[in-house]
Amino acid sequence: MQQFDYFVGVDVSKATLDFAVAKTNQILFHQQVTNDKKGIIQFLKALHQQTKVNLRQCLFCMEFTGIYNNPLLTALHRHSAPVWVERAAHIQESMGLTRGKTDQMDAKRIALFAYKNRDEARLWTPPRTVIAQLDRLTAQRARLVKEIKMLQTPLTDTEGFVGKADRKADQQACAASLKALKADLQSIDQAITELAQQDPELKRLFERVTSVVGISQTTAAEIIVATNEFTTISDPKKFACYAGVVPFERSSGQRRGKPQVSHMANKKVKSLLHLGAMSAIQHCPQLKLYYQRKVAQGKNKMLVLNNVRNKIVHRIFACVRQDRNYEENYTHQLA
């Protein structure tokens, strides 16, 4: 396990970066710079002047904030510096009770979090260029779907509540916008298909994942991006937890609560898996029979659907791990 001499907590925002440098559990200094190449170089020079240390001996820890991380991640990767990108919820939960919040305080707390949890550090590795492109396309697609839903839902929900003339006028007012948005959505889907065909490894993963009944190209793309081609998350149980489809027991003393799924999950992936499960219980004979049998036994429908989501996750990871497409009547071959 790699040993680090210094721990650098970074609070990332659109305009600025707040750095807090710690040695063991003591904060040495704090510095705020602009979130651009000039500001990052300014801090790295200050870090070297203060510590005289090689960047490979420093562990940089930051919360995931999407594209705002990119300038710093690019610079640190160029210098081969170890980087730990962690979910904000994980860092917040580990801090316990805290009072006050500023960018400077957050940077110091992240630095101390990195020191206290250094044995559990998961070093960040940059995704391939094609995965970064896929990530941008899926994000664009999600925004288009959201905009279409915002325009479409009021038009369908007003039926029977407003006059036909007013409803028709509303539909005509949004018709051009909806047509353009749907055309853009088709273009994004086509771009994702073409991107998958251009890269052999990405094509292989799409073929394996979409072979599972209920998994569409959109769901496959989100899973591939979320797992960084099944490298950062290779265990189906961990991914099921990440997607929020694993129920956890909540008990205390004599009280025995019902197991519930955690709200700390990737809601986008969870939603897509739910749609996949709804499709699977209609088109997959095994899962259809499973769903009908459990519901007939009196099980809650959402509980059974969640179990189906979990089964789908395990099927996906099995196909990727064994490098084969899903087969309904697959039998294990004994060595």
Automatic annotation (TrEMBL):
Residues 207-292 form the Transposase IS116/IS110/IS902 C-terminal domain. InterPro entries: Transp_IS110-like_N, Transpos_IS110, Transposase_20. Residues 8-152 form the Transposase IS110-like N-terminal domain. Pfam families: DEDD_Tnp_IS110 (PF01548), Transposase_20 (PF02371). One of its GO terms (molecular function) is transposase activity. GO terms for biological process: DNA transposition. It comes from the Bacteria. PANTHER family: PUTATIVE TRANSPOSASE FOR IS117-RELATED (PTHR33055:SF3), TRANSPOSASE FOR INSERTION SEQUENCE ELEMENT IS1111A (PTHR33055). NCBIfam families: transpos_IS110 (NF033542). This is IS110 family transposase. The lineage of its organism: Bacteria, Pseudomonadati, Bacteroidota, Cytophagia, Cytophagales.
